[in-house]
């Protein structure tokens, strides 16, 4: 990851993890606005968490999850990539524990800023900040922006002109 010590270092790459939830859509909108202001590349990452209960997923289910997540990420990249002239949006799908996988991806791609949602598809335990968002805020060596649920009431959808 970029060694951003809070100085005025430019933001060249932004990571916006997504799970397809409404909260993730607000995250993507915020990441795109930052990218427009900074001239940064947005990375959209979806993590298939197959580690929580490995016995729950067989080979076919994992393949179906991978395919669904890939379609989700590809759809986001297609819809948002052309929204603003010169804005680059890249997509990826990974498997593993969400926090560790997000941090590994950020390290591999030199991410300068992480934009996450306060909540996602988690349950009641995620009510305040969200377990993944909480772990990322505590563990990430780069700045993390947490987008509140319901934020973005004035946001444009990716397809908006």
Automatic annotation (TrEMBL):
SUPFAM superfamilies the UniProt entry points to: Adenine nucleotide alpha hydrolases-like
Pfam families: Usp
InterPro entries: Rossmann-like_a/b/a_fold, Universal_stress_UspA, UspA
Stretches assigned to the UspA domain: 11-148
Gene3D superfamilies (UniProt xref): HUPs
Similarity remark: Belongs to the universal stress protein A family.
Protein name from the UniProt record: UspA domain-containing protein
Native organism: Natronococcus amylolyticus DSM 10524
